[in-house]
Structure formats: C-alpha cells, structure tokens
Design goal:
The chain is mainly β. The protein has 2 domains: 69 residues, no CATH class; 130 residues, no CATH class. Helix content is 11%, strand content 43%. The chain has 2 helices and 12 strands; from the N terminus they run ββββαββββββββα. The strands form 2 sheets. Strands 5, 6, 7, 8, 9, 10, 11 and 12 form an 8-stranded antiparallel beta sheet that branches. A 4-stranded antiparallel beta sheet has the order 1-2-3-4, covered by helices on one side. β5 and β6 form a beta hairpin. The longest helix has 18 residues. It is globular, with a radius of gyration of 18 Å. The two termini are 13 Å apart. About 3% of the residues have low confidence.
Length: 219
C-alpha cells in the first residue's frame, strides 16, 4: 500500500478535522466525521478520466482511514499529537520567522516554515509549540492552480532549499497564500515574493522535529 497516503488535516472548508487519502500524491478521497455518521467525498483524477488500482489495497486503505477517524471521534477539535493547527491565528509570529525550502509533489506544494518565538501563555495548547516555543512544520497547498514568483507565473520547483531564509511577510486567504522572504544564494542576498493559488491551504504542525527533519518528513 505504499502508493496510498493517509493524512489527518485541518482544512478551511470544514469545522473539524478530516482524513485525506492520496494515491501517488493526488487526493483520491476525504473522510469527515462532523456528525455521528462519517461521510466520504471522492475527487476526480487530474491526469485521466478515472482511477485504477488494486481493489484490496484500496479497501484496506479506506478501513485504515476510518479507524483513524474513529480514534479522533466526532467533533474532535485537536488531534493528540497536535499535528493540525489553525495557522491563521498565528500569522503575525511568522514575520521574522524562517523558511527552509519548498517541495512540489503531485498536486501539492509544501513550504517548510518556522515562526518566531511565541509566548506559551498566548496559545491554548502548549503541545503545538516546539521546545524553542515556535510553530514548526509545513504549509500545505493542495490542488495548486497557479504559482507566481515575483509576479511571474511559473512552475513550482520540485525541491529547493533557501539558505538563511527569513520571512518578511506571510498572508493567507481562503485559497491564496503570499509569502515574501529573503535568502542567500552564493553569498548574494535575494528577496523574493511568492503567490500561490490552491483549492486547499492548511498547516501540518511538526513541533517535535527539527526544521530539516520537517522538510524531509513524509506521512
């Protein structure tokens, strides 16, 4: 079942957590549990008119995803491992924070970020913070529709690290993320602005990992 990937996520169009099922990097289904009954949504395959895979693997994946949602329970606002955080509440702390890099895989763009210091008294759940009292993890942009670098539309880099990357500005709207940051390339300081439009934007919190471990982390 290596081709299937199950992720618990907090998404803007849902009040509670959902379980996303991806196949080879593309979202196949989403399971929600906002009432006593679970529901499932299936998404179209962006590369062809249909999906095709092993039936037993697909059924086993659905059962595994169902068990993960049962473990959270209906209307469960925060997972035990504090992986999902509403980043929009903490955007101000990402200014003066760090950006390590970007990865483009399937229909998703992942930005590995770390906020500046956050006073633990300012958060409801201390476990969402790293030992350095920061938010550390990945900003995930799913089903990307456009990627602009300095106002020019282009393809996202497959994988790129930004040496000494410092965030100047981070803004998030329902389907748009804009980030301005500075980094060094061959000892030359550069300042870039990236604007990404995507159907879903959410934060995957990884407080127990280092920034480079978060960059390389796979569900």
């Amino acid at each position: 079942m290596d081709n299937f990937n199950i992720t618990i996520a907090s998404v803007p169009d849902r009040d509670e957590l959902v379980c996303e099922i991806l196949y080879k990097g593309f979202q196949w289904a989403e399971i929600s549990h906002e009432t006593e009954e679970m529901t499932i949504q299936f998404f179209p395959y962006p590369k062809r008119d249909y999906w095709e895979f092993n039936l037993d693997e697909a059924l086993a994946t659905l059962e595994k995803a169902k068990k993960r949602m049962i473990g959270l329970g209906p209307k469960h606002p925060t997972p035990i491992d504090a992986r999902c955080v509403d980043i929009r509440k903490y955007l101000e702390f990402f200014e003066r924070g760090e950006i390590l890099g970007v990865i483009y895989k399937g229909d998703k763009v992942f930005l590995t970020l770390e906020s500046s210091y956050i006073n633990p008294k300012a958060v409801d759940n201390r476990t969402i913070l790293s030992k350095n009292c920061t938010l550390r993890g990945k900003l995930v942009l799913q089903r990307v529709e456009s990627y602009c670098l300095d106002n020019k539309k282009t393809q996202p880099p497959k994988k790129q690290l930004f040496a000494g990357g410092k965030i100047v500005k981070l803004e998030l709207k329902q389907t748009v993320a804009e980030i301005v940051f500075e980094y060094k390339e061959q000892s030359i300081k550069k300042r870039v602005a990236v604007k990404i439009e995507a159907q879903k934007i959410y934060w995957e919190n990884l407080p127990t990992l280092s920034l480079i471990e978060a960059f390389n982390f796979k569900e």
